[in-house]
Amino acid sequence: MPLLQLEGISKKFGQVVVAKEISFQLEAGDAVGIVGPNGAGKTSLFAMISGDIKPDAGHVFFEGHELSHLSAARRARAGIGRTYQVPRPFEHMTVFENTLLAAQQGARARGQKAYNLAYGSLERTGLGDYANDAAGSLTLLRRKRLELARALATTPRIVLLDEIAGGLTDLEVNELTTIIRGLRGEGIAVVWIEHVVRALTNTVDRLLCLAGGAVVADGDPHTVLSSDEVRAVYLGGKTLNPLEQ
After folding, report:
1. Based on the domain organization, do 1 and 97 belong to the same domain?
2. Does 209 lie in the same domain as 137?
3. Does 52 share its domain with 169?
4. Which residue among 87, 106, 127, 200 is least crowded, i.e. fewest CB within 10 A of its CB?
């Protein structure tokens, strides 16, 4: 049984198609990257998986259970963690308090268990030394790590990463990809939207390209990036060198 399965997901906002009969599935520990031009429907797809918006048609299954009737909060408790492109910490709370709240609300943990989940997620993302700092004082890299830490504090089976490497230096991207690769070893599946393509090619073993809400390529990352369809809709007809992105 697949961990996550999408069947014919479709969505329109007025006349704008953001998802057109999208179907794919993944197993525990899989890592899938999603690329595509702005407006391709990438973040909308995440929102339909996480429960922030409802598809017009199609089905989302998680561990064999249909999710259409579940709110975003209940999906998080079921095991779907998510980060956002623009970090959204509670800025006046400490870094630890941010992850503690995630553990309490997302994992329904209490007492020592909640404490262990919260601090453990900070240790996994390299934020242990900043636990008592105000979240609003963090650098961009640390804010992005906090986004990931909050998602991990909910004890997810799958993590949806939305451009978590954007705006980081090469060294920071390398540090982040090391953390994300480590999640796979724990059996956590990763679905990652990213414009920093080399981060994806260093981490995932499968790549989807979206355009106009539809999947135009799906497969090995290097094969997808060199395909005519992807060069046409995403790269303007130019061949992409992942090392330069």
Report:
1. no
2. no
3. yes
4. 87
Look up residue 10 and give its two tokens.
Answer: 């479709």
Work out how many domains the chain is built from and give that number: 2
Reported as half-sphere exposure (CB side, CA atoms, 13 A), residue 147 has a value of 22
56/168 same-domain check: yes
d(CA 26, CA 193): 15
pLDDT of residue 239 exceeding 60, the answer is no
Q: 13 and 130, same structural domain?
A: no
- Taking only the tens place, the pLDDT of each residue in 166-185 is 888 999 999 989 999 999 88
